[in-house]
Each structure stands twice: as structure tokens, then as C-alpha cells.
Amino acid sequence: MTISNSLSAGLQGIQAGMQRVNLAGGRIAAHAADTEVLATNAVEQMSGRHQVGLSAQVVKAADEMLGSLLDIKV
């Protein structure tokens, strides 16, 4: 996997995680009285938050690899 593929995958993961959080938040707001919907979507928000965090680590690792390659090249 190349560095650009890693960056792309990380950014896509961040976007997907943010979308999960936003959709779950919307469902919570729309169905605030339903405890089952609340619980399910609270878990979905937590999962989305973890997805964003892990994807950010992928982006960070790719950035560090690119920096190391530039240090070696220069």
C-alpha cells in the first residue's frame, strides 16, 4: 500500500465516521422519547467516534512515513 493510498483510506474513514455520528445524532433528536432508538444510536455514535480516531491515526502514520522519506531523500 502506498502512502497516498493510506492517506486516502484514512480520510475516507474519517468522513465515514463523521457521517455515522451525524446520522445517529439526527435519529436521536428525532426519536428522543424512544429509549431503544436512543441506546442503539448512542452506541452508533460511539462507534463512529472510534472510527474517526482510528482513521486519524492512519493519516498520522502515513504523514510520519512521508516525513521520514523526505528526511532520507534530503
Question: Could you walk me through the main structural features you see in this protein, from its secondary elements to its overall organization?
Answer:
By secondary structure, this protein is mainly α. The protein has one domain. The protein is 91% helix and 0% strand. The protein is built from two helices and no strands. Helix 1 runs antiparallel to helix 2 (35-73). The model has no long low-confidence stretch (mean pLDDT 91).
Which short descriptors sum up this protein?
single chain; 74 residues; mainly alpha; 91% helix
Binned strand content: under 5%
Give Rg in angstroms. 17 Å
What is the end-to-end distance? 23 Å
What percent of the residues sit in helical stretches (DSSP H or I)? over 70%
Number of domains: 1
Mean pLDDT: 91
Structural class by SSE content: mainly alpha
* Structure annotation, total helices: 2
Count of distinct strands: 0
Overall shape: rod-shaped
Main beta sheet: none
Which spans have pLDDT < 50 for at least 5 consecutive residues? Answer: none
Task: Give a nutshell description of this structure.
The chain has 74 residues and is mainly α.
Could you outline the blueprint of secondary structure elements for this entry?
Layout: H1 3-30, H2 35-73
Helix pairs in contact: 1-2
